[in-house]
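Run log, item B.
One chain of 124 residues. Sequence copied directly from the ordering sheet:
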Amino acid sequence: QVQLVESGGGSVQTGGSLRLSCAASGNHKSYIYMGWFRQAPGKEREGVAAIGGDGSATYADFVKGRFTISKDSAKNTLYLQMDNLQPEDTAMYYCAADHIPRWMTIPGTRGIYWGQGTQVTVSS
């Protein structure tokens, strides 16, 4: 079993930055990819970013150039640096883990494991 706990959400103005963290515990051999997906009220869940075991990263087009995913394997922690935030980025952000980054490739999906989410609110 794997537990994922997100933190770092908050409220910022347009153009601001936030850094999300996801602390992972449990059986780390249960997954290869980690990443983030988000869901805003009334909208479908959408993949944001993923990082593989080799450190390779994938991003949704709408965050390319603004968000950066990274991980600290020694601390078992995943990060999402979010810069130049826009009101449309407002959503609950969830950490995910799986053998494949299905939240990036299959619309509306999560992963085998996901956390409780952290709220990001961007005001104009």
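Observations after the first pass:
- Residues 102-105 form the longest helix (4 residues).
- The chain has a mean pLDDT of 96.
Flagged for discussion on Thursday.
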